[in-house]
Structure formats: structure tokens, C-alpha cells
């Protein structure tokens, strides 16, 4: 089996897996998991008589509840906060979620400082890079289909370049996402985020990366693998095409006539008999003259 067929098959499978993983990660809400130990906070508040504000915050602030966060939503898999804390709706997977606001009002407190504005623009850019990456994958699908149909090394090379571009765009989006995470932990960007939490909430909240985040990186890795394999397949196709052309040239080479001396007269064994002339047309004897 030609190496191009094997490499193209593996590259196609890798590209499909990469697209599926990136789409799943982009659309799901399990990038970060906030494990808030509400029972420990309640015990702390019960021991301190001056903790009325803490009790009120536990009821009226959604970030006192265990939750998962994705690119577009915050979901509450365990306890649902009251509607006065955050408006929620039932997602397709039967989880109460609330949409993240990427276009807050100008007079919102969350956009009242430079760090908050920077975090917001970085978060928007993260979404934009993911979208551009999906558009690039869509273009790579058509060039790859054309390359496989025509067995064109040029089209396969273009597909490899497009998938590599999609991989870099997605990796850049992940870098922006980590930058947003850094702003939320280290900068003053709003009371919803770690930097402005009180000490009790910080001590009783554990933030971990969830499966959607890992799926995104797995999709980027599969996309990079597909780009490398497609590049190798293009090289194989080019080499196979050159071999075919060399074989065709052998059949197309012109054959020139060769000058050979005339054949010797017919010889009979054991000695050649050569009849001397003169020779006449027909017989010269009897009534059979012509």
C-alpha cells in the first residue's frame, strides 16, 4: 500500500478527532471547577457573632456556591443560588446555568478600572480566536477533500498549512484564556473573582481545571498531529508522482530503426547451394513457354 494512502487515512482521522474535541471543549462549561465548602463557611459564621455579612453573602452571592465555568456560562451542578443572586435557566443537560456577560453596561462596576477592561477585551479575543480557528478548519476540510479526490500534493500541503494555522489560533486562544485567568486571580477586576474574595471564602474554595479544559488541549494536539501527517502525505504523493512520471517516460522514449546488412542467401545443409544464372522468367523448355 502506498505510504500516501496510509498517512492520509491517519491524518484524516486525527483531523476529525481534533475538530470534535475542540468543538466539545468550546461548547461545554467545565473549564474550571470551583469547589466551595459551604458547610465550613457556615460553621465559621456560626462561631462568630459578627458574621452577619458573611451569612448574607452566602445567600445573595452566587460565587459562594459550587459551580463550573466555561467560555459562555457558569453552571451550578449542586445547589442553585436564588434568582436574586444570579438569573439562571435550565441547560440542555439539566443543569442550572447563567450566561457570562461579554458586553456589560458602561457604568458597570466591573469595567470601572483598567485591569477589568483589559480582562474583558482578552476574554473577547479568546472567543474570537477560537471562532477563526473553526473557520480555518472548515476551509481545510474543502482543500483536503479536493486534494484526496485529485491526489494533489499541492492541495494536501495547503490543507496542512490551514490545520497548522488552526492549531496556532487555538493555542493562542488558550494563551489568552490563561491570561484572563491570571487577571482574575491577581488583579482587581470585580468582586466575583478571587482577588476580591474575603479570606474565609478563599480558604474554603478550591479551583481546579476540569475536563473541558483538558479536552481543548487534546484537540490542539490532535490538530498539530494532523497537520504534520498531512505534510508527510504531501511528500509521499509528490514522490509517488515522480516515480510514475519516470515509468511513463520509459514507455514514451522513441525507438529508431537500425540499419542492418541484408540477409545472406538461403543456405541448405550441409553446404549452401547457389544456382548460377542466367535466370529467365518462366521455363525455357517444352510447350510451357509464356
From TrEMBL:
InterPro entries: PMP22/EMP/MP20/Claudin
Keyword Transmembrane appears in the UniProt entry: yes
Keyword vocabulary terms for this entry: Membrane, Transmembrane, Transmembrane helix
Superkingdom field: Eukaryota
GO cellular component: membrane
Subcellular location: Membrane
Transmembrane spans: 122-143, 155-177, 214-237
Membrane topology: Multi-pass membrane protein
Protein name: Uncharacterized protein LOC105225204
Biological classification of the source: Eukaryota, Metazoa, Ecdysozoa, Arthropoda, Hexapoda
Chain's gene name: LOC105225204
Amino acid at each position: 500500500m502506498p505510504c500516501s494512502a496510509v498517512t492520509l487515512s491517519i491524518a484524516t482521522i486525527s483531523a476529525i478527532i481534533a475538530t470534535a474535541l475542540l468543538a466539545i471543549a468550546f461548547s461545554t462549561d467545565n473549564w474550571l471547577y470551583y469547589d466551595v465548602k459551604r458547610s465550613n463557611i457556615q460553621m465559621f459564621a456560626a462561631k462568630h457573632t459578627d458574621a452577619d455579612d458573611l451569612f448574607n453573602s452566602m445567600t445573595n452571592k452566587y460565587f459562594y456556591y459550587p459551580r463550573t465555568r466555561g467560555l459562555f456560562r457558569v453552571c451550578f451542578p449542586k445547589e442553585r443560588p436564588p434568582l436574586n443572586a444570579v438569573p439562571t435557566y435550565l441547560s440542555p443537560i439539566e443543569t442550572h446555568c447563567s450566561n457570562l456577560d461579554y458586553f456589560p453596561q458602561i457604568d458597570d462596576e466591573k469595567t470601572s478600572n483598567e485591569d477589568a477592561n483589559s480582562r474583558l477585551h482578552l476574554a473577547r479575543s479568546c472567543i474570537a480566536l477560537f471562532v477563526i480557528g473553526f473557520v480555518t478548519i472548515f476551509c481545510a476540510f474543502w482543500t483536503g477533500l479536493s486534494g484526496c479526490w485529485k491526489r494533489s500534493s499541492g492541495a494536501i500541503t495547503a490543507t496542512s498549512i490551514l490545520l497548522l494555522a488552526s492549531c496556532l489560533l487555538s493555542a493562542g486562544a488558550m494563551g489568552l484564556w490563561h491570561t484572563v485567568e491570571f487577571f482574575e486571580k491577581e488583579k482587581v477586576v470585580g468582586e466575583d473573582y478571587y482577588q476580591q474574595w474575603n479570606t474565609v471564602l478563599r480558604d474554603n474554595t478550591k479551583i481546579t481545571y476540569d475536563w473541558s479544559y483538558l479536552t481543548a488541549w487534546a484537540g490542539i494536539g490532535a490538530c498539530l498531529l494532523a497537520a504534520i501527517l498531512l505534510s508527510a502525505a504531501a511528500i509521499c504523493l509528490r514522490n509517488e508522482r515522480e516515480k510514475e512520471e519516470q515509468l511513463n517516460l520509459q514507455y514514451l522514449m522513441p525507438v529508431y530503426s537500425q540499419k542492418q546488412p541484408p540477409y545472406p542467401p538461403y543456405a541448405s545443409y550441409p553446404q549452401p547451394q547457389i544456382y548460377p544464372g542466367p535466370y529467365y522468367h518462366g521455363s525455357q523448355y517444352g510447350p510451357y513457354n509464356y
